[in-house]
Amino acid sequence: TVYPDQYLASKEVAQRIAELIKKKNEEGKKAILGLATGTTPIYVYKELVRMHKEDGLSFKNVVTFNLDEYYPMNPAAVQSYVTFMNENLFSKVDIDKNNIHIPDGSLPLDDIEEYCRGYEQKINEYGGIDLQILGIGRTGHIGFNEPGSAPNSGTRLVTLNDLTRRDAARDFGGKSNVPMKAITMGIGTIFKAREIILMAWSKHKASIIKKSVEEEVSADVPATFLQLCDNVEFFLDEDAASEL
Ligand code: GLP
């Protein structure tokens, strides 16, 4: 779906999330959300915060799983996705801290494999993700599933692509400060979500959106794997859709 701008598109995504939360609440159930970071979902979170403050939308029955985190990363660092989520959403709504899950970038290397298995298992224990929101990197990554990622991959430690590290350089005061690795949910983990929404805004995403939607499915552009899903919707602004 193409929207005139990212603000209108983000409002619609926030509305979908709010409807899910309310429906689950009426059923006496938890809403299990898969969340993304980066600049793309910022207005979705802003709108959810507004709905919490002005419309009384409660996050008490919401459980969240974030897609990814840099590795190594101190959760208290300004660049961590923990800080990002706290600043943009969690500290501004009534979510129970025990219901928040973000990959831990501060664990020793030897513990990562077991930790990732546990992350995956926790998602399953909650009955899976109801709604997963995604941005897209210019390499075609979703989460941090860089080119070469397998469609059945699970949560794991990955090596970041050079372009991804260049795109992140501004946040870190130079590319050399960007971590070499990240922990990410896998393509397989993302696919298990009952509903997937991918968002992309502006001209610099137009070419990767064209590849993702129109080119052959291939691990060279991991987002093309989404063509194999029935339950996925792309929310684009006119600029991101301009090469389609
Ligand atoms: C980051 C995140 C992704 C995000 C992507 C796009 O590396 N790990 O989850 O979708 O890059 O970032 P942005 O939304 O800032 O364009």
Automatic annotation (TrEMBL):
Domain Glucosamine/galactosamine-6-phosphate isomerase intervals: 9-227
Highest taxon above the source species: Bacteria
Protein known as: Glucosamine-6-phosphate deaminase
Native source organism of the sequence: Paraflavisolibacter caeni
Portion of the full sequence shown: 18 to 261 of 642
